Amino acid sequence: MPVTTHKYINGAVTVVWKPEMCIHSKICWKNLHEVFDPTARPWINIEGASTERIVDQVRQCPSGALTYSMNETSEATGENT
Ligand code: SF4
Which atom of ligand 1 is nearest to the CA of 17? Predict the structure, then answer.
């Protein structure tokens, strides 16, 4: 069965949310409501907090529904990828 993924990207990080894996623990939106707001559309405001804070919160997702990857930029790495 294909897994639905939604991506939210700011300049530095990409947050991926897989709704089928979300167990609705509420941890993300109780701890960082500026970013994770289930009443908003889109429900993740990727500009709502610092990248560091968002990454910290994503790491606390107990189900693996939230993951992240750092965006690579040619300025940061010095590479043209
Ligand atoms: S922390 Fe993870 S499992 Fe809990 S509500 Fe947020 S996305 Fe869903």
Answer: 7
